[in-house]
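Archive entry. Fields below.
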Amino acid sequence: MPPLERLPACLMINGDTLLIAHLGYPTKPFKAPLIYNPYFDSIGVNAVVMPMGSLPEDYPALVREIFKLTNIRGALVTMPHKVTTVGLMDEVTTTARIAGACNAILKRDDGTLLGDLFDGEGFVRGVRRKGRTLAGASALVVGSGGVGSAIAASLAAAGAARLGLFDVSAASADALAARLREHYPALAVTTGSKDPAGYDIVVNASPLGMKDDDPVPMDVARIASSTFVGEVVMTREYTPFLAAARERGCTTQVGVDMLFEQIPAYLEFFGLPTTTPDVLRSVAKVAYQP
Amino acid sequence: MPPLERLPACLMINGDTLLIAHLGYPTKPFKAPLIYNPYFDSIGVNAVVMPMGSLPEDYPALVREIFKLTNIRGALVTMPHKVTTVGLMDEVTTTARIAGACNAILKRDDGTLLGDLFDGEGFVRGVRRKGRTLAGASALVVGSGGVGSAIAASLAAAGAARLGLFDVSAASADALAARLREHYPALAVTTGSKDPAGYDIVVNASPLGMKDDDPVPMDVARIASSTFVGEVVMTREYTPFLAAARERGCTTQVGVDMLFEQIPAYLEFFGLPTTTPDVLRSVAKVAYQP
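PREDICTED_STRUCTURE:
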């Protein structure tokens, strides 16, 4: 029998419980309640993350009404509502504006809604925790979809000096570059090349690596050992790309790190006591490593 | 250290969790989550009762949107929304129609909303559990407000043959009588007297007994010892009225019984595994006895 202190703490919802909605569809794959709620239990915060499945056609009206609840603090937003959410907020952060997506909603004291996006912030926090400086750094982001846009926007917000963007859709990378330049005029942004040579940070923000026979997203032989190499694919801890970078001696960051690193950012956003990714991993009732 | 099996079971919300909204305002006094959720835990049902505070001006639109959630089963409804709810449903039961209030909403498989009211059903179930038969019985209900209307409607639904109604507002009792006669033409309904003589069942459904200096709601000396005597006041276990009836040898029912007796009715309504009031009392994380 395990010692008493190792038993899971118990969520006891009552009339004072603060609601954090987890909005998306389908709800089945939601994992956040299995991290946030045990954490809230462990520190005695009376809040609960509650999955709420909303279909795309129902979502805008739901957002209008649900944040009028007197005991709601905000929401985690996931597929398929991250893009739609931008247009439903009273205000969105620059990062969410550039990336064109929100994964967090805060109901402010005056009832207005602020949208933010923490995917890229999770990446950036992971880089910092591993000892790298973002201010003045150069970074290559391969993939300009949702997560790539989020990472590029957060790297810019963190003070990166130069960004290289690449996507199989050149128009997608160019559009992201234009949005970045608009909000960060001093940032040097180039597109069209996925050559990792000469960058302080490179990150695969494309889906390449999810399948066994995927090509690597960039030429690993051109990555210097001093380069920080990140990955967003979460279906395996080390993709062939990330494993090759590690073999070259690079400091690496696995996809799941981005997920646990962004939770403290969410907690700060909601005005709740924050913690470290390690604490969150230790209380989580879900295994994230493949 | 207590044995492991005595430790509270843990609510572990995940992507499959069924939501039962607890709608009302303010949420602070809500006690239902402290009964339902430990019960769900104890039997391994993945459902959660979540308090949601809604102001009267926000409530109709909230009801329209929140039941579109893909993982919501229904709602418990409390003050101040019980009357409003009737007009927001696709269908309401006869009991809810007569009483003019709903305290339960079911989202049916086709997405339509059914409203019901279990206050009176709780009273009726308590009477039955204490060995009395409702079919053909006569009952005096003192108080024609929300709870009195609910009890009268449920007594009629349970097959009572004769009801006496009394309220300090004669118009209120007469209006309830008219609604009962409309739906139950064979039921004998009289109003204007609170004389308990000659009834099988008498119940105080007025607030008298909440305060120490309240008069008793009816003349206890006129209650036969064979009469079943019920009370709705919950602020004390035995009101002076109920204590006097018990002293006369009457079988009695305290106010809180009505509350715990109606939970199995809610569970059946939601299509969830049901249980007995005793089991609910044993798992509840709240003390209801004063």
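CURATOR_NOTE: Confidence is low (pLDDT under 50) at residues 1-9 of chain A.
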